């Protein structure tokens, strides 16, 4: 897939509020650009055994390229919501240009089967997965200054003006990471209406991250050093659950699970100061129900749950500083964020009624 | 498109062009796929998006 877009520019807030301009008016430059190319291939193989079990194996490889250089529209000093009119000058600042290439390969193979053993009915799943992820990012120099960016007015959107792209790119950062996981879970029918779920997963993750340092932020700047950081962990995750299914149309569950994030992109901002912070970890406690109505024509699902994330990687300046300045031992004591408390949904599967 | 007793090919093509008063979208892509099951209990499929 290829992309050659002119992205819609953000319009900065005015005195803490959203400026009252016509939605859809374009205050960017015609030279703004978002170029992208994505190539992805997937192969999948399924082998079914005579006893009903199967092994499903899939491999996916992808390459993603992106170059973006665009505008953020704003207002000159003295502009207020009260004096905003068609003659108000709109300034055009440049957003930080970005150029990067991601190459990822993922492989997964798992075995599943339903069988009787040890006096119980089992729904069993076990497998392995592996990933190789790499990214190379460029930094921009020789960027046109703000003074080279023409202004416009509120009453003159999409004025067709553009500026020459003088950017010179150079390598800035990147990573190479490998991860491997193996897992198994069993859903056991322990009584007529009761099932118990138990699962465990082991992950191994190793990533090498680098930041290139230059003598100056100009094309004349020379490479003076490379900051290399390594992150490696081996981790266990677990899952337990209890299901109560009093009928074919009702299912209630209580579950507890933990997980770790092994995506290299999550840790792209790791530095030598934060390399000892443990990986992102989440835990989830959930109480939920699935109920079918109208002979299966209407299905409802709802859950009350609490998800906590620990050691969250956050590059937002307002909050990341607080997290990263804390010793790793402290940051693992309290969750960085609590995500959700309640979810619910109604799914109409089929509506063949005589209403 | 069936290519045999136990195989089939699929081709998805997309083009998206839009001009929203300055902002523009210009996307195109093709995704061929092939599925093959020559032996009972075996199935192979491939999809790429380029």
Q: What key phrases describe this protein's structure?
A:
A: 355 residues, mainly beta, 13-stranded antiparallel beta sheet, 2 helices, disordered C terminus, B: 50 residues, 4-stranded antiparallel beta sheet, 4 strands
Protein architecture, described:
The complex is a heterodimer of chains A (355) and B (50). By secondary structure, chain A is mainly β. Chain A has a single domain, classed as Beta Barrel (Maltoporin, Chain A), CATH 2.40.170.20. Chain A is 4% helix and 58% strand. In chain A, strands 1, 2, 3, 6, 7, 9, 10, 11, 12, 13, 14, 15 and 16 form a 13-stranded antiparallel beta sheet that branches. A three-stranded antiparallel beta sheet of chain A has the order 4-5-8, with no helix packed on it. Chain B has 50 residues and is mostly beta strands. A four-stranded antiparallel beta sheet of chain B has the order 1-2-3-4, with no helix packed on it. In chain B, strand 3 and strand 4 form a beta hairpin. The radius of gyration of chain B is 17 Å and the shape is rod-shaped. Chain B starts with a strand and ends with a strand. Strand 1 of chain A pairs antiparallel with strand 3 of chain B, so a sheet runs across the interface.
Percent in strands of chain A? over 45%
* Number of separate domains of chain A: 1
CATH architecture term of chain A: Beta Barrel
- Number of H/I helices of chain A: 2
Number of strands of chain B: 4
Uncertain stretches of 5 or more adjacent residues of chain B = none
Radius of gyration of chain A: 27 Å
> Helicity level of chain A, as a percent range?
under 10%
Percent helix of chain B: under 10%
Strand neighbour order, sheet with most strands of chain B: 1-2-3-4
Helix count of chain B, per DSSP? 0
**Which assembly state applies to the chains in this document?**
heterodimer
Mean pLDDT of chain A: 87
């Amino acid at each position: 897939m290829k992309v050659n877009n002119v992205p819609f520019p953000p319009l900065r807030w005015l005195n803490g509020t959203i400026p009252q301009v016509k939605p859809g008016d374009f205050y960017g430059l015609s030279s703004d650009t978002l170029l992208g190319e994505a190539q992805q291939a997937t192969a999948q193989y399924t082998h079914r055994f005579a006893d009903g079990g199967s092994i499903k194996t899939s491999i996916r490889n992808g390459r993603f390229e992106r170059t973006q250089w665009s505008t953020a529209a704003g207002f000159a000093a003295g502009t207020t919501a009260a004096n905003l009119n068609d003659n108000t000058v709109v300034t055009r600042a440049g957003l930080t240009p970005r150029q990067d290439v991601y190459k990822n390969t993922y492989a997964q193979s798992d075995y599943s089967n339903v069988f009787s053993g040890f006096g119980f009915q089992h729904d069993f799943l076990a497998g392995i997965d592996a990933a190789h992820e790499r990214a190379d990012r460029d930094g921009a120099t020789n960027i046109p200054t703000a003074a080279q960016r023409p202004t416009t007015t509120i009453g003159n959107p999409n004025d067709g003006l553009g500026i020459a792209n003088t950017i010179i790119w150079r390598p800035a950062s990147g990573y190479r990471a490998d991860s491997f996981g193996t897992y198994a879970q069993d859903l056991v029918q322990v009584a007529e209406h009761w099932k118990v779920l138990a699962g465990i997963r082991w992950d191994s993750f190793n990533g090498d991250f680098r930041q290139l340092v230059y003598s100056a932020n100009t094309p004349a700047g020379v490479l003076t050093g490379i900051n290399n950081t390594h992150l490696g962990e081996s981790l266990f995750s677990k899952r337990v659950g209890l299901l109560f299914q009093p009928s074919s149309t009702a299912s209630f569950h209580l579950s507890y699970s933990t997980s770790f994030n092994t995506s290299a992109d999550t840790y792209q901002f790791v530095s030598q100061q934060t390399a000892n912070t443990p990986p992102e970890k989440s835990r989830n406690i959930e109480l939920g129900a699935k109920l079918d109505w109208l002979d299966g024509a209407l299905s409802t699902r709802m859950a009350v749950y609490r998800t906590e994330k620990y050691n969250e990687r956050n590059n937002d300046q307002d909050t990341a500083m607080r997290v990263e300045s804390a010793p790793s031992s402290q940051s693992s004591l309290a969750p960085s964020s609590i995500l959700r408390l309640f979810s619910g949904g109604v799914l109409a599967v089929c509506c063949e009624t005589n209403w | 498109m069936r290519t045999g007793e136990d195989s089939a090919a699929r081709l998805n093509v997309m083009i998206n062009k839009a001009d929203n008063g300055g902002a523009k979208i210009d996307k195109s892509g093709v995704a061929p796929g092939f599925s093959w099951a020559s032996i009972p209990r075996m199935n192979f499929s491939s999809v790429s998006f380029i």
